[in-house]
Write a structure and sequence with these properties.
Length: 594
């Protein structure tokens, strides 16, 4: 068995582990696959977007016309890059399955397909940073890395899986030789990243800084920086043209990689590339520092010229109510200290252990062939850890970056345990190897909190186990049989209603439609007499109340006399008529009386 394993290439080991991850994912999520039980609002709305694309909606038109139809539909900032892959897989499976089964299996399998390139990339990264034992240990840890693999679970079809995959691809490119080709490839990868989501912008800054600092220290690293700079001038613009159209070159959208960001990046890249063509400017570190300052200033000036509205950030236009009752409660986008203690422990414990392991491995690699690679990885981790503390969901990328450190830690602990003379020492040392698995660290931390804190002091992540009962197929089936109409629904239930029924909704939890979101929140939170004109003016036929979602609970708590609180208590609202035929379980449907 050992000889057979030693003969396997790293890629084949990654392939075998991928088969195991796929099998485990399909088994664990079998019930959700059978009922199309998507995980959250973004997954639901991605499916709606894919359906529209397959239904003939324009490639460059990502508007959701069943959101806020009275005002022309809800604007979306998502990319067709992800849509087209899911749509293509559905079209392929339709050759063998019914349309419904093809869609269900496509969105179940698609996220798992991305795990294979992820493991292949991690395998290559591991070989750049350690020996075969460390590489195999790292791959095993990566295949069990639930702290980041959860973005690749079946039915998780939003863009976060691609964001993580591209972030890992950037690390792989950064660890290789400092060639012009790798710099150009890095520009391509980061262009895809930022076009999928503006959350890729910090990684552009992190790896751009890494390439720049290495050139500042060693002018021989100029080719990679030149390739990266040249690529940033051309590739993002071409990518935008293909996936967004000409409008992306003139529109200013602060929440996506539009004119201000694209211009700033291109100007900075052009200035840097031009300076790199002048040998005299690279003759000393002081001159190289001046070149970097000039390029940075040029990019900043371009952003100030083209993007003044974006100085307030991507979400600067949100109304106070939308920010309070929606944005501030999207916990994966909030900092670590805003999370419940047990949720924060899932991130913090593996991060502390992993960063400590990275420091130890970096020091141990001094003088070896792997030293330069560990220098680069430690720089990336030193930037990535604070970022993931500010935005909780980026912790998944940080944990993926820490896989080499965990692999090295596991191999070292195993060697130490084998060196112990007593049986007890060997067993204890072998048990310590488990601490090199991020999920084990998270489990230990969570268990420790249960012991230290009272049972009611540790918060729980609501809806973490799946969808709320009021948006299941069974709950929405009666409403789905009614003729298509406009539904005044809570923001969190909107995407599921779009997927499971023919109806339209006023708003979903997607911020470009923030004015409509504000109206929905205002209506549910206000006294019924004040809500009536808002709801009636929307033109909706039905109003939906869902008792088991945090959104309703939060608004009822904020105003005990508001519409949400009144509906929770079963009070009769004079302008609403309860429809028992369309209601089921926690989902209550009311006809809006004119």
């Amino acid at each position: 068995m050992r000889d057979w394993l030693e003969r396997l290439s790293v890629d084949r080991i990654a392939l075998l582990l991928w088969f195991a991850v796929v099998a485990a994912g399909l088994f664990l999520y079998r019930e959700g696959i059978a009922t199309l039980g998507l995980r959250d609002a973004d997954d639901y709305l991605r499916l709606v977007q894919v359906r529209d694309l397959l239904g003939g909606q324009s490639w460059f038109d990502v508007t959701q016309y069943r959101i806020n139809p009275a005002e022309g539909g809800g604007m979306m900032h998502w990319s067709r890059f992800v849509d087209m892959q899911i749509a293509a897989l559905i079209a392929l499976l339709r050759l063998f399955l019914t349309p419904e089964a093809a869609e269900r299996w496509a969105i179940a399998v698609y996220p798992l397909l991305l795990v294979l390139p992820l493991l292949l990339l991690i395998g290559r990264i591991l070989t750049m940073l350690g020996d075969r034992r460390q590489t195999i240990a790292g791959l095993l840890i990566a295949a069990s890395g639930v702290t980041f693999l959860h973005y690749f679970a079946p039915l998780r079809i939003d863009h976060h899986g691609w964001q993580l995959l591209l972030s890992v691809a950037m690390l792989w490119l950064a660890l290789g030789e400092a060639s012009f080709g790798r710099g150009l490839a890095a520009a391509l990868v980061i262009a895809a990243h930022v076009e999928i989501s503006l959350e890729g912008l910090p990684y552009l800054a992190i790896f751009g800084a890494l390439f720049a600092l290495e050139w500042l220290r060693d002018p021989a690293k100029a080719p990679r920086l030149a390739g990266f700079a040249a690529g940033l001038v051309v590739i993002p613009a071409l990518w935008l043209l293909v996936f967004r159209g000409w409008a992306s070159f003139v529109a200013v959208h602060c929440d996506s990689f539009s004119l201000p960001y694209a211009t700033a990046v291109a100007v900075a890249g052009l200035a840097l590339f031009a300076c790199l063509q002048i040998p005299a400017l690279a003759s000393s570190w002081q001159r190289r520092l001046l070149v970097l300052a000039i390029a940075s200033a040029a990019g900043a000036a371009a952003f100030l010229i083209f993007g003044p509205p974006c100085l307030g950030g991507p979400f600067g236009e949100l109304e106070p109510l939308v920010r309070r009752f929606w944005y501030d409660r999207v916990m994966e986008g909030q900092p670590v200290w805003a999370q419940d203690s047990d949720v924060a422990a899932l991130f913090f414990a593996p991060t502390v252990v992993g960063y400590g392991a990275a420091l130890w491995a970096w020091r141990a690699a001094r003088g070896s062939a792997f030293a330069e690679g560990w220098d680069r990885l430690l720089f990336v981790l030193t930037c990535s850890v604070p970022l993931s503390m500010m935005v909780f969901r980026t912790g998944a990328v940080t944990h993926a970056y820490m896989v080499p450190a965990f692999g090295t830690m596991a191999a070292a602990l195993w060697d130490w345990s084998r060196a112990q003379r007593s049986v007890l020492g060997r067993v204890g040392g072998a048990m310590l190897v488990l601490t090199a698995i991020p999920s084990i660290d998270a489990l230990i931390a969570a268990r420790g909190l249960e012991i230290v804190l009272p049972a009611n002091a540790t918060g729980k992540l609501k809806a973490a186990e799946g969808e709320e009962s009021c948006v299941t197929p069974a709950a929405l089936a009666p409403l789905g049989q009614a003729p298509a109409a406009l539904v005044f629904a809570p923001i969190d239930t909107g995407p599921a209603i779009l997927v499971r029924t023919p109806h339209s909704v006023i708003a979903t939890g997607h911020h470009r439609n923030h004015a409509a979101m504000n109206r929905v929140i205002t209506a549910y939170m206000s006294d019924p007499a004040q809500s009536a004109p808002i709801v009636r003016a929307s033109g909706a036929t039905w109003l939906v109340y869902c008792a088991d979602i945090p959104e309703m609970e939060n608004m009822a708590r904020a105003n005990p006399r508001g519409l949400s609180a009144q509906l929770a208590e079963g009070a009769k609202i004079e302008w609403l008529a309860y429809d028992a035929k369309l209601s089921r379980g926690e989902l209550r449907v009311y006809r809006i009386l004119r």
